Structures are given as structure tokens and as C-alpha cells.
Amino acid sequence: MSILPLLKESRSYMENQALYNHFLKFFSELENRIAGKVLSQLLEHSNVFVETSTTQGNFLKPNELCNALQISLSQFYKMKKTYKNFPVCNVGGAKRYKLSEVEQFIKNLKT
């Protein structure tokens, strides 16, 4: 009995297993990305349907927050980088900010 066929079969099994693991990882990452995009789109469109304005209770994108605070995007990112405890919420994988929390954070910095 030759060992060569067993080695070929073992190698083929390992290659198939590695390929299976790569596909599993790929599709898992793809699934997470799609879920994040869907949640983000649902959140964005739900705000349109409800016709919410950017008030203190809503989650804002960085540019919306900057408009409300009347600061530039670069000032916002510098502040966020400087203060690691800057208030942020993850909504469907996207970072959003509550105006009331950020205003309170800035007030606390001044005192």
C-alpha cells in the first residue's frame, strides 16, 4: 500500500478546508457590511419620512453638528482627536452625535 494517494487526499482536504474558511470569512464580512449599509439607509430614510429637523434629540452627522455649533469640520475633528471622551453614538455602524450632549461636553470643558 502506497502512502502517496493518502498524502494527495489529505492535501486536497486541507486545500478544500482552507478555501471553505476563506469563503466563510468573505461572506461573513460581506453580510456585516450589507447589514450596516441597510441600517444606515433605513435610518436616513426614516428621518425623511418622519420629517424630523435637526433638533437636540436627533443624531447628527459631523457636518450637521458643525452647522448647528457654527464651527468648521476641521475644528470638530481637532476637538474630537484632542478629547478621547468626546460624546459619540454608533448608529448602524455610523458615528452620530447628539447636539445636546456635545453642547454639554463643551460647557464642561469651559468650566
From TrEMBL:
Domain of life: Bacteria
Name of the protein: Helix-turn-helix domain-containing protein
Organism classification: Bacteria, Pseudomonadati, Bacteroidota, Flavobacteriia, Flavobacteriales
